[in-house]
Amino acid sequence: MARFRTRLALLGSAAALAAGALIPTQFAGAQPAAAAEEYQWVALGDSYTAGVIPAAGNIFEVPRDGCERTDRSYPQVIDRDLGGLFELTNVSCGAATIDNVTDTPQHPIGRHLPPISEDPDYPFPAVPPQSEAVGPDTDVITVGAGGNTLGFADLLMQCPQLGGDSGGVGTPCKDAQAAGIPARLKKVRQDYDRMLSVLHERAPHAKILAVGYPTIVPGDTSKCSFGDLTQFGTITQGDLAWLRDDVLEPLNKAIADSTGTQEAASFIDLYDSSRHHSVCDDSKWVEGFVTLPDQLSFVHPNALGHRNAADHVEEAMLNTLG
């Protein structure tokens, strides 16, 4: 694995690197003649990596492939920050499952969510399994996946309908769906274990950084206004607490536990740092179902959320240079 001694000398001490104290402008224009080749970095993941929504920037790929990578998503932010050290290959894709990362081709949906929205470029050709972008020369892999394997988007479709039918009372979504959540979490863990094994086989010398999910539901669900589409629409406060405690936090734990079994992998926690920036907080890093005035966001990180993710992922990536 390349070591970049010349570039590291420019950045100062290893302690400064680990703390993230040196900002990207310090090496943005530096091009030492003796510098080694860049680290090869592959970014894998679902919509929480790709960006997808307008609040996470503009789609930059022409022609579009339907994966909806945006220019303010965290891989692209890091690429601008650390482009002198890492060469990025970003194959993240909205709606990807863990299997789509590992070995299953994906048919991207773009922004085609009928009857809510129609994408004029839909349907899109299948894209290969994301792991095919990884190879023996890959030095760093970042991967953020698991929510679609869990079926979180399905819950976001079902819970508002059930909450609306109940008039905002009780836990109708929990009552209907809770029995199936343990099996879903078990599948996440099994699929994640297999994915990490495949990535390690394809890139035996790479460091794998598994990126968790941010805080989406606040600790105090009374912050969330029933019926507000800029938040969670008609999901009841009781169901929001259930989604937080029994679905989303266990999802992060399943990813962290799986990562902990792999010597070459590390878990990046975004949950604690975003705890006061949920969908229902004034300073939100995750949008609700819509972003005003009329943009569909369907509970995804905005540019501020991606900036926070970039800060944490950058620190971990710089630590791989030691």
TrEMBL record:
Q: Active-site residues?
A: S47, H300
Extract the signal peptide range.
Answer: 1-30
Which top-level group of life is the source organism from?
Bacteria
Keywords noted in UniProt: Disulfide bond, Signal
Which processes are annotated in GO (biological process)? triglyceride catabolic process
Disulphide bonds in the chain: C67-C93, C159-C173, C224-C280
InterPro entries in the record, alphabetically?
A: SEST-like, SGNH_hydro, SGNH_hydro_sf, TAT_signal
One example GO MF annotation: triacylglycerol lipase activity
Domain (SGNH hydrolase-type esterase) spans: 43-307
Task: State the PANTHER family in the record.
Answer: LIPASE 2, SGNH HYDROLASE-TYPE ESTERASE DOMAIN-CONTAINING PROTEIN
Q: What is this protein called?
A: Lipase 2
**Species for this entry:** Streptomyces tuirus
